[in-house]
Amino acid sequence: MTADVAVETTPETPLWNDPAHPVAARVDALIGAMTLQEKIAQLYGVWVGASANGGEVAPHQHDMEEAVDLEALLPNGLGQLTRPFGTAPVDPALGALSLLRTQSRITAANRFGIPAVAHEECLAGFAAWGATAYPVPLSWGATFDPDVVRRMATAIGRDMRSVGIHQGLAPVLDVVRDARWGRVEETIGEDPYLVGTIGTAYVQGLESAGIVATLKHFVGYSASRAGRNLAPSPMGARERADVLLPPFEMAVREGGARSVMHSYTDTDGVPAAADESLLTGLLRETWGFDGTVVADYFGIAFLKTLHGVAGDWADAAGTALTAGVDVELPTVKTFGAPLAEAVADGRVPESVIDRALRRVLGQKAALGLLDADWSPVPPALDGVDLDDPEALRGKIDLNRPENRELAREVAEKAVVLLSNDGTLPLARPRRIALVGPNATEGTAVLGCYSFPQHVGVQHPDVPVGIDLPTLRDTLTAEFPDAEITVARGTGVDDGDLSGVAEAVDAARGADVVIAVLGDRAGLFGRGTSGEGCDVESLALPGAQQQLLDALLDSGTPVVTVLLAGRPYALGRAVAESAAIVQSFFPGVEGTAALAGVLSGRTAPSGRLPVSVPRGPGAQPTTYLGARLAHASEVSNIDPTPAFGFGHGLTYTTFAWSDLAVDAKEAPTDGEFSLALTVRNTGDRHGTEVVQLYLHDPVASVVQPVQRLVGYTRVPLAPGEARRVRVAVPADLASFTGRDGRRVVEPGDLELRFAASSADPRLTATVTLTGPERHVDHTRRLHAVFGQEPVAGA
């Protein structure tokens, strides 16, 4: 029950338990009744794992933490429970029962009966055993479809709430600046507008299901030097303001996110967890964010151990609290005894604790956790007999058919056809050589924050928990009359060339080769993609390029299929492959989506959320570069990508025509209205993605050559045409000026309607008139698109 719904209370009901009163009054009354130890207890979590038999949880032991004594902690209360489902494999129903019993224990132990907020990872679906593994965020970006991402997030959030979870640690709103970074798979792409719109849709979906969405990592994590995890971020203030902050700004303002997680990184010597100007000045005082700021795991302790800006644990706690961090995760370290000691000796004022506590308790009140009638029984166990735990096993399904159907829709929309000489779609091939390390590997569709790759790999004796058909499985079903010969060729990263000859023999005996290459997701060096799996270059891992080159030499057409977490340089294959199909860890339905695209059962409509490099070493690069960042005559390194941001082919053709501009001049506080016609000139249904880029030829500070300011998907039947209209506010031309303020300057602009950053189709030159105009976080953020049928088409 939420804080806005009245319940029947008695005169003995404390004010803080009565939802008939305003949240602020309830929180103030509760804070006034708490001891210092009780206040501090609400500001940290404890890492737990659900009991496999439905019993109470026990603290999770991690190599970066000391053991905690729950018996000693719980009488003072507890702020958060860390990953009760995402720590070890547990049947969802027994996990829900375990969480229920743990919450009962927590509420019984503290004198105010306050339960904990339970949080989980949900970067590619609810990170729980047996839950649907959806495509990773890079695939969300490839859809260019906020609606489908919003629906996916809603489904994920409903599953989480059904078993008692309150908060989800997603989405990642870091903008890719260097594709060598291992966490590229967790991002949405290299453009802030795409990241912002897709990420905000994900936030809206989670929040609509009652889950507190957590924006991460605030801010600068992805701009680390050389793409190394947790390295310093050498960005300037303008890059931070114009590239890295806008997605967070949008998700706070339009998404309604109720939590933000600080970044591990430091920028110009100031760690994010210690940056008061960021966490309090910008986030709260300027943007008006009123939710909670939570620590990235161990991030407060890192102020002492990694950043060296705190002399002891108490100093770290006080620094983070003062900056604006409210909750220490994943478990108590600095916010426990060290913080209490710091208050006692005067180093940290109790008012700073009260400030954080007010936010934490306000969120608990909004979640209904302070209400007198709050129950630990989650919706999935409501009305169920809880006395026989074993009878509950298998009673909660977190991988229902409707989940998988949604996962398939996202996966299908995210498949990107990079090149095609007409070989695709395959027309009933008689003999297929299926080659490569990811052809028969079920987990090749999963990212590092999927439960099987994140947790399950540490429990090899436990079943994966979800069905993961390989591409061999789905191709066999897709082409039942074909003879499919399988050859591994080489491993993902073992460098083994002993199987290449067998693969080439298979290729020579086939009508077509499907080479399935890419990554293995993992953590901290256990994979080729994922957290802590950074790379020195963007060459394919291991000996995969040698395998691919040998297949190209076989004389048989090669369709290169990539199941990966980042873009890779493909060498000769860019020009010599019959076709290239890119999929970024597409989840449980990913191989079915790929098989459908290869056969033509579904039409590809994905677009690249990150550029595909031409060479492996020209990094860092991004389409979002200034003139000096692009190819020039004064450097022998050409960073021009093989396939640019936004690129993607279909199985039909489109004609763009009849560009019209209502007025070519508008004031700096006005807008432009434009229209164009898009027609399907082929013989198949297809979806075009109309992308709008802004080019500012003369500005007071250096600007990117172009940047995305809008996009829309246009599905069209053969011969069908639609008139696409768009209103472009002048605010979209704003940037951070020399004085640090965001400005809209008068002058000429180019508005480029394009099929990708490298493929402009129609360009309008327009002019902003009048004085310079300063704007802030309340500026207009979107071009507004509309579509209508063209009569007679």
UniProtKB/TrEMBL annotation:
Segments forming domain Fibronectin type III-like: 688-757
Presence of keyword Iron: no
Domain of life the protein comes from: Bacteria
Signal sequence, renumbered to the chain: none
Gene Ontology terms, MF aspect: hydrolase activity
Keywords: Hydrolase
PANTHER family, A to Z: BETA-GLUCOSIDASE (PTHR42715:SF10)
Stated family: Belongs to the glycosyl hydrolase 3 family.
Record protein name field: Glycoside hydrolase family 3 N-terminal domain-containing protein
Organism this protein belongs to: Streptomyces prasinosporus
